[in-house]
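Lab notebook, bench 4. We co-purified these components, and the gel suggests they stay together. Before we commit to crystallization screens, I want a quick structural picture of the whole thing.
Request: model the full complex, all chains together.
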Amino acid sequence: MIEINGCSKVYRSRDGTREVQALDRVHLTIAEKEFVALLGPSGCGKTTLLKIIGGLLSWTEGDVRIDGKKVTGPGPDRALVFQNFALMPWANVLTNVAFGLELKGVPKEARTGTAMRLLEKIGLAGFESAYPRHLSGGMQQRVGLARALAVNPVTLLMDEPFGALDAQTRRLMQDDLLRLLDQEPKTVVFVTHGMDEAVRLADRIVLMSARPGRVSEIIDVPFGRPRPAGYDSEPVFNELKNYLWEKLKAMQTDGGKVNGG
Amino acid sequence: MSGQVTTTKSPAKQSSAAMSQRLGARARVVLDRWGPEVSAIAVGIIGWEVLGRVLQFRFFPPLSAVPEAWWEIYQTGELITELMMSLRSLAIGYGLAVVAGLAVGVLMGRYRKVEYFLDPFIDINLSTPSLTYIPVLFALFGVGDATRYIIVFSYAFFIIVVNTVAGIRSVDHELLEMARSFGASEGALFRKIMLPDALPLIMAGLRIGITRAVKGMINGELFIALVGLGARVRIYGGQFDVEKVLALLVTIIVVALAATSVVQIIDRRLTFWAETVQR
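Here is the predicted assembly.
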């Protein structure tokens, strides 16, 4: 369980003269195996919140705990998936997927075995010796996802992972992600600016507003996982999307922007 | 990927016409790649020979006079002796410049304070012609080997530092964050992300460094040393023996090309992944 209690984050410029409040007293509790989407305009602090949970950023006020223990840095219980994939261009697919295990000191044979199994699972069997630059965006993000899964984390932290992909690839990746989670349930915190994406994937949608970043509303998605057949042609699906769109539009007229990270 | 064009038919069944057509295609590829380079060299050689014969000028002999002079200094054994002396100062001077340049560059790239402290020295030395130090070095170390090594070193060191700093500076922040998120220690960050990501720029520094080192080797010998190819150039130059000077020049060109190719080959092996799009 992830507990975020009154978490605020203020960025200070180096000389201390300027301050930007990225997060303002955010409260959020995420249950185990729950899929939570953080949705909001750019500047709403959703990526900041994700990185705080990941232990990559500190916060200035409040409390962030995982299973009752205060977050003090990255840990093997969490793994990140990055918007721009963050693959090492000098290393082949296999080495990239096994990188988290390599850092943990897992011996080469064991980590190669794990990586190969994941590549198979994620549809990249046969590509283990290819280099990232030879892969399409979708395949690169599959590598990024496999790398995160390889360390077998409790929680997947995904920072607009499909934002850089074209629409068709994005849909395929969304379906694959849900399929993988059915086989092996995990807690997922998923940053996105796509309303459609949030409704397709999440159990709950945390709608955030910008400047300063606040939780403006938490919405339960009325579909279970795995999603029932034809759920996206039901009226509720579009109603929810339209509702989110109205909310985001209202924020935009308040000075925020809907697109971007 | 070269070599295998089709595997659908066994080679024996392929008509000889198709074979020769394929050979023709290969030849065209080779010609496209090497044609301009070979013709440039040919133009240079023919131009030299023709000019030398037409001008009949004492200080510009035709190219065909050079091999004879080269053979003369080769047979006396002096060419090899001096070549070895030169190569030794190149290896020692450049080797030290690589080791020290990488170390200083990495420190400057990682620690701002070190960078601010050393920056003036690097900037000054990068823009000052290193030859101006020769009198000082001469006074300090005499005409011995140390002076020659230091000159080679000073020609290559600063450019290696500057490129290494730039490489470390430009390391992809997302990759660092990624490694940190998987629990990388500071040491692992450096070895597994910073160094490999900085490698293309570092290798560019080593490539420019080797060409400068060759210049430093010859310049040092020309101006003060009593040994090495450069010293021989000075001696024969003083005697107006232009053929021998040119024979030495050709030798120096070969040394320079060989040294740069060695570094280039290492570079291609290490940074093949950073290859830019082909023209």
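The helical segments of chain A are 46-53, 93-97, 99-103, 108-121, 137-150, 167-183, 195-201, 235-253. Worth comparing against the SEC data before the next meeting. Chain A is about 35% helix and 25% strand.
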